[in-house]
């Protein structure tokens, strides 16, 4: 039997539990928070006063912070790309019999994720500190360009990717929340904090998918984990660009900015790798092929090697001037 057919069988085997996993990790629409819970109510008499408060507090936040918040928002707003990618993964079927369990997971997960870009977009618009048209162009470019995260249609690789990426977005939003809180911006802090909570739930869900695959197809799951970490996890916004029509250094500069203010660093990348190794108990997996054993050895040694590399990395001290953020906010 081909590896593809084995993966399909495993996906079908796990699918029987997807409904219960949705109940465990996703929150019903009527109970979960919505963007309006954190934004001024346009029907309220205090609407304009609240906007004024947002704009006054926004003045206290430095340039690099706005760059990171904009980059995080654009990443969230490129959700159509992520959903279309996941819908094409082996074992996910949205057509037959109204869609299988996996396609229902993807759609409900997308519904939860959609609120993140929505609330951040509205907040940025109200803040008066960013150039929304430039942000909108970047967002459209990112969706139009699509992405290639190196997973092909392989569910094993895709679940490694989502396990990693959801934890990375948790770290980023959580750190942004802490900076906002320190600057006295409680509304923005709560907003980013609750987004980070969603990301952590999603991380646990995808991590459990991987755990279940390890139990029934340990060698190929190990090889998928090895493959993804050897080629390195590509961030979903790696094709980020500003207006002008050319692939630019925007993502690199955004990444440098996030590192400079400590929102997401190369050491965080290694920490996440170590957390996945520990979570999946890579050192205890049994019944591996010889090739998978070698892959395990590589993974176990990888964090210490990457820590050493991260310590030698140097981040530019000067901020790149993005079109997204208005000059008035530069400090």
From TrEMBL:
UniProt: Fe cation 2 binding residues: 113, 166, 199, 202
Binding site for Fe cation 1: 76, 113, 116, 199
Record has Lipid biosynthesis as a keyword: yes
GO BP, sorted A to Z: fatty acid biosynthetic process
Cofactor(s) needed: Fe cation; Fe(2+)
GO MF annotations, alphabetized: metal ion binding; stearoyl-[ACP] desaturase activity
One Pfam family recorded for the sequence: FA_desaturase_2
Keywords, sorted A to Z: Fatty acid biosynthesis, Fatty acid metabolism, Iron, Lipid biosynthesis, Lipid metabolism, Metal-binding, Oxidoreductase
Entry note: cofactor: Binds 2 iron ions per subunit.
Family: Belongs to the fatty acid desaturase type 2 family.
Quaternary structure (record): Homodimer.
Protein name: Acyl-ACP desaturase
Species whose genome carries this gene: Hyunsoonleella flava
């Amino acid at each position: 039997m081909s590896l593809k057919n084995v993966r399909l069988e495993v996906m079908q085997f796990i699918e029987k539990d997807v409904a219960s996993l949705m109940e465990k990790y996703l929150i019903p629409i009527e109970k979960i928070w919505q963007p309006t819970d954190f934004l001024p109510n346009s029907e309220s008499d205090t609407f304009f006063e609240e906007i004024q408060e947002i704009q006054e507090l926004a003045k206290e936040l430095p340039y690099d912070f706005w760059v990171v918040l904009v980059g995080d928002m654009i990443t969230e707003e490129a959700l159509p790309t992520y959903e279309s990618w996941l819908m094409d993964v082996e074992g996910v079927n949205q057509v037959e019999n109204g869609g299988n369990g996996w396609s229902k997971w993807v759609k409900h997960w997308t519904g939860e994720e959609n609120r993140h870009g929505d609330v951040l977009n509205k907040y940025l618009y109200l803040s008066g500190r960013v150039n929304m048209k430039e942000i909108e162009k970047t967002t459209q470019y990112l969706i139009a360009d699509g992405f290639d995260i190196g997973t092909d249609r392989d569910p094993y690789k895709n679940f490694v990717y989502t396990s990693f990426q959801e934890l990375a977005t948790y770290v980023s939003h959580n750190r942004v929340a802490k900076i906002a809180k320190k600057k006295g911006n409680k509304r923005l802090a709560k907003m980013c904090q609750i987004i980070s909570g969603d990301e952590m739930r999603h991380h646990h869900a995808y991590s459990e998918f991987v755990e279940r695959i390890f139990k029934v197809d340990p060698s190929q799951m190990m090889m998928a984990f090895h493959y993804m970490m050897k080629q390195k996890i590509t961030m979903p916004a790696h094709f980020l660009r500003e207006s002008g029509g050319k692939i630019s250094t925007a993502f690199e500069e955004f990444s440098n900015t996030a590192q400079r203010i400590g929102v997401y660093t190369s050491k965080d990348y290694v920490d996440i790798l170590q957390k996945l190794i520990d979570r999946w108990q890579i050192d205890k997996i049994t019944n591996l092929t010889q090739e998978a054993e070698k892959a395990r050895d590589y993974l176990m040694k990888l964090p210490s090697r990457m820590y050493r590399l991260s310590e030698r990395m140097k981040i530019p001290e000067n901020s790149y001037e993005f079109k997204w953020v208005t000059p008035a906010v530069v400090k």
